[in-house]
Write a structure and sequence with these properties.
alpha/beta, nine-stranded mixed beta sheet, four-stranded mixed beta sheet, 10 helices, globular, kinase, transferase, Ribokinase-like, PfkB_dom
Length: 289
């Protein structure tokens, strides 16, 4: 049995920043897997993904680095275009191709304590898939994909279809300040956290960009600082890097505050370059100091 299993599509990403345009792989599963792979091997990890043949090289690259990847076949891989302005919190997004959703049958052979669902688009994980996985382990969800509706090539913020049904099975949820407003119509992270807890979520993690993050669990709030990066290069994958750090530390038995600080430090290091987290545990500890 694995400690953590991340399930999600590996994407093809076109990232446009004021400095340049980069083509690379991406998606929650990509950033999470590389982040986990840079940490000490004290937590066992598996990635379950579903890609078109255009992404099979990327799957092989991950396996060569020692990442345990179970790969299912999709007609196409997801293809995102992310365009950032001078303010990295603002992003416009287009979807140039979509991958096939995950199915219950594909979930039957996997075994983990925590399933982290890296949703990228609203139909990646049906309620049936989430309900099935919740009978096998804890469910951790990054809400971003559930709030993205594709019309043509454009992505529109949408309220979460089947929200109540999925949240009933969800143990850990991660969302940012924009997503919390879409879900609850509130701009107050504390109000949002309490609302989500009332819907059945045990650990609510809300990231607030350069303002840090807030964790709500067992009726208590934990304020997590944001550590200042030396330079801000690329915010793509920061939220997924946070999830990697948080779930890694929680799997080791760390408390909410320590897990949040570790995750925030990983994000700071990730912000300083394009691509996935590439530092190590000592670098993370130095940031927290």
């Amino acid at each position: 049995m694995k400690d953590i299993c991340c399930i999600g599509h590996i994407t093809l990403d076109k990232i446009i920043t004021p400095k340049d345009t980069v083509f690379m792989a991406g998606g929650t599963s990509f950033y999470m897997s590389y982040g986990m792979n840079r940490l000490p091997n004290d937590v066992s990890y598996q990635l379950v993904t579903k890609v078109g043949k255009e992404s099979l090289d990327e799957v092989e690259n991950m396996r060569k680095l020692g990442i345990d990847v179970e790969c299912h076949q999709s007609n196409k891989s997801v293809f995102f275009e992310n365009k950032y302005g001078d303010n990295t919190n603002n992003r416009t997004q287009r979807v140039l191709a979509k991958a096939d959703p995950f199915t219950v049958d594909e979930m039957k052979g996997i075994d983990a304590r925590v399933y982290h669902l890296g949703s990228l688009l609203a139909d990646d994980f049906s309620p049936e898939v989430v309900e099935y996985l919740s009978t096998k382990g804890l469910i951790s969800i990054d809400v971003q994909g559930y709030l993205r509706e594709v019309r043509g090539e454009n992505v529109f913020a949408t309220d979460w279809k089947d929200k109540e049904r999925i949240l009933e099975c969800t143990d850990i949820i991660k969302l940012n300040e924009h997503e919390m407003e879409v879900i609850t119509n509130s701009k107050n992270p504390r109000t949002v956290a309490i609302k989500l807890a009332e819907m059945g979520v045990r650990e609510v993690v809300i990231t607030l960009g350069s303002y840090g993050s807030v964790i709500y669990a067992e009726g208590k709030f934990y304020e997590i600082p944001a550590y200042k990066p030396n330079v801000v290069v690329d915010a793509t994958g920061c939220g997924d890097t946070y999830s990697a750090g948080y779930l890694y530390m929680r799997s080791l038995g760390a408390g909410y505050s320590d897990a949040g600080k570790f995750a925030a430090a990983m994000c700071t290091l990730k912000l300083e370059h394009s691509g996935p987290f590439d530092k190590n545990i000592e670098d993370i500890k130095n940031i927290i100091k």
